[in-house]
Amino acid sequence: MTACQALFSRGVLRASNCPKSSAVKSASFFARTYSSSFVCSGRPHLYRKNCPSSTKNASSYTTIAASLSTLQPGRSSTFLLSRAGRRTYANMTTAAPIDQLVKQVDGLSLDAVKAKFPDTYPDLNIMDLYRAHLSTVLSEVTGVDAALIYPQLGWTSGLEKGDMALPVPALRVKGKKPDELAQEWAAKFPDTDPLFSKPTVSQVHMSFFLKASPLVNAVIPLVHGKGAEYGFNKNDGLKDPKDPSKGQKRIIVEFSSPNIAKPFHAGHLRSTIIGGFLSNLYSGAGWDVIRINYLGDWGKQYGLLALAYEKYGDEEALQKDPINHLFQLYVRINTEMTAEKEELTKRKEAGEDVSALEANSLDEQARRYFKKMTDRDADALAMWKRFRDLSIVRYKDTYARLNIHFDEYSGESQVTEEAMNEVGKLMEEKKICKEDKGAQLIDFSELIPGKEGKRLEKPLVRKRDGTALYLTRDISELLGRHEKYHFDKMIYVVASAQDLHLRQLFKIIELLGFKDIADKCQHINFGLVLGMSTRKGTVKFLDDILRDVADKMHEVMKKNENKYSQIEDPLATADVLGISSVMVQDMSGKRINNYTFNMETMTSFEGDTGPYLQYAHARLNSIRRKAGVSDEELAKADLSLLTETSAINLCRHMAGWPDVVKNTLKTLEPTTVLTYLFKLTHALSSSYDQLQVVGSEPELMKARLALYTAVQTVLANGMRLIGLTPVDRM
């Protein structure tokens, strides 16, 4: 049955010129009216490819090759299914396994679950359905309201301890000890429950195991039906999930933020990887995500760079490799300036008048050049803009390798003097800042009582010469972003070294009278990457790091000549594997922890590494290729044949993926996802001996391949969430 016929068979489609009261379900009617625009719920869903554009009420379409041999012999037509129609069809195909699961429990319905347990989506997260059912059963056993039981049902630390656990003390039932209640309730739990086995008890904890058959028959079709969307709940990003017309919530993620005209060094690596992950996470949850790169693109150092280019610049070198050429120029001029300062200091100490030399020093020339920039001198700004634009072009190449893009390249230069002056006036009016030796500062100890005020210290907001500092710029930038984007949340992905700076920023915004804006802001911090310097102590740049790990992976790949010869583009694959190794090592621990960069460990195929995840995905793809089973055959697989413990455990892991994504929105830790992926791949690796695909009896082969195809989908979804590109061969 084609997608079109399936929609007809369920009464989803009808002809637009047919009364809604008519039961248009027959394929023959479809054949007679193929030129009509077909509608579902009043919106065009299906129409002939060459129909007038006026009938097309959708932004993108999928071509459906309808099987019309039985409808119009000898003739084939192509029809288009709109985005809304595809969504309807997808919901039909994924609803079936959930419906079958619901039917196994008397009195259970999806609508009842959603009404009784807020923030549940059993049609997207199968475990919501299981939790709702278990809460209802336990309510009858314990006498405790099901709504109180539901939030206490949590995951166990491992599958061997069950799929869900209930800490009895959390229900606060009086009269008996929790361990006695646990035993009593376990004994009362019905033996014939369709979804759960009898619970086991360990002291005050009750553990519950899902029955295999209902789970297997529900989760595999659900994963196949949802595909790349499995695990993600777009309702999380709606302003009002009950009324989607109110639109999405908007989040700004500011991350990476290198300094222009300087290579992308390892210090920016963590911000980039974590920020990319968070952007993917919120996008998957249905938020409108704005990715901003706030560049370090303003200051006296760019005056110094302009001097260096005037003295030593090479146009050909600039065009070929702008960032490295500009960086080399900056290092050279900075070395000269340092030496010059040391010489002037010696002469001054010797009693010599060096005022004339100081007035024409490199430092003073750089200051004067930057003053021209702030005064909007056309030539000075043109040079600066050229450096900035060339840097961004190069950065984009690096970001593309990391699967990252930005919606806006902002920067310190984009904050106007007028905006900062307005902020300065407002701080004076609110008596937030005060003068100190000609400068303007904020003494938080005078504004906020107790330890909190002292911890925020006394930051400067204006120098004696009137120059604004980073804090002033950040205040203006934050307020400007809120005015421009009207965001619901904003995340700064910045190293833990800036903890104090961000606390000061948010508190100033609050003191200015914008507490509502301050409350929307969050600082996501992280520790340092150690061992990233060369032997000379200089910083190692990211492009060099990625080249080194790609070379390392290429060497490993070439050791298997047979597999290597089958890879279409070995160098590109090696690059993806190298990037995967860097990113997974970065995400393996909690963000706040420092970690040591270790090339040998990260590029290994053994242990919990990026190459290990990629190998797991590529192996599943290889099994699918060798089996040679079509999607149509796979959809008919008899899943009741999957009775092995390893197969059931893989289904238990897959059922938990939506919960992992939901929990990650709370932790905002990449390692939450990574830990899950390694548990999944460990279970996968241990299953191969028990679940042979190629060479098995045909029906058993289909069932096992259906399982492994679902696992591959979940694995790929998790890998893409953390920013990896799953490879098909390696």
Automatic annotation (TrEMBL):
InterPro entries: aa-tRNA-synth_I_CS, Arg-tRNA-ligase, Arg-tRNA-synth_N, Arg-tRNA-synth_N_sf, ArgRS_core, DALR_anticod-bd, Rossmann-like_a/b/a_fold, tRNAsynth_Ia_anticodon-bd. GO terms for molecular function: arginine-tRNA ligase activity; ATP binding. GO terms for cellular component: mitochondrion. It catalyses: tRNA(Arg) + L-arginine + ATP = L-arginyl-tRNA(Arg) + AMP + diphosphate. Coiled coil: none annotated. The keyword rRNA-binding does not apply. This is arginine--tRNA ligase.
